[in-house]
Design goal:
The protein is of the alpha+beta class. The protein has one domain. The chain has helices at about 5-20, 35-40, 80-90, and strands spanning about 30-35, 50-55, 60-65, 70-75, 95-100, 105-115, 120-130, 140-150. Helix 1 runs parallel beside helix 3 (about 80-90).
Length: about 160
Amino acid sequence: MTPGALAARLIVDFCLPGIIGKEKGRPPVEGQNVVDEMRLKLGLKPGGRTVRYPLAEAPVYLDVQGAESQVFFRHDDARAAYDAVNVAVKQAFPDLSLDDVALAPPLRKRALLCRLDADNVAILEIIDPAPEAPADVRDFAARVIALKRADPPLSPS
């Protein structure tokens, strides 16, 4: 399994459905809890929980902190990971919209608004290498932000 494929599974099976209490099974790779000291080295804020999923190519991390979760890794597969995540999210949550947002090269950021059910939505922000980025840019990160709908859906009267 590639880091991008594992990232897609973690996002689609755990991060997004976890918002509405519908996680799917177990991760395909056994995870290891990350201690607070290592979390700080990874640049994460105190107070969350991080799991490291070891793969032969590179570890993939899942960090959960309140209403936000984050999946990230550093590997050559970062360039293909967006496509893997995008396809998986569209299959699992077809009611979504894309807002392309460019970051300063060498990275780009894209945001997807995913409707999970009648009351819950999530913003999925994906940061990956821009097409023109040098080969040594190998960072992938996806952040899921849980939101509650402010207005209830309209019902016919």
